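Lab manual, section 2.4: Encoding a predicted structure.

Procedure: take the sequence of the chain (161 residues), apply the prediction step described in section 2.3, and record the output as structure tokens. A sample record is shown.
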Amino acid sequence: MTNTARNVTFAFVAVAAVVVASILGQVATFPNLAPWYASLNKPGFNPPNWIFAPVWTALYALMAFALWRILCLPSTTIGRKQAIAFFFAQLVLNAAWSWMFFAAHSPLLGLIDIGPQLVVILVTLALFVRLDAIAGWCLVPLALWVAFAGVLNYSIWSSNA
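Recorded output:
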């Protein structure tokens, strides 16, 4: 396989992975926005609903780009497989959060997911930075957003428990 074909294949894999996670999250989220989520007590710092789609679109684009950069490294690169494994673990936790919070109507289950999710994101970020600084920095906005989401999730849970 030529280098160009390999890079295109890896781009497809990276984009497909984050698109699947996004779709899985949306399937759990959208049917539960109204009336369930709308009826919850939320803190004053809760962003308006319209902000989530553009933020997550940008985050998923950065995640796909970061993964693509790591996938394009030589397969013999030390730490590459571990970094990819952690990336996919955080992606699974990302999609699972929507099912736990929205589909199960459980801010508590969301909290149970989001703590480990943030830890796995931070480990992934650290592993990516060691392999490719640009890939690692692409995950910083994700880590910040999920940290904020954790605080928001906790606030929603505590005010609706």
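Check your result against the sample. The longest helix spans residues 3-29.
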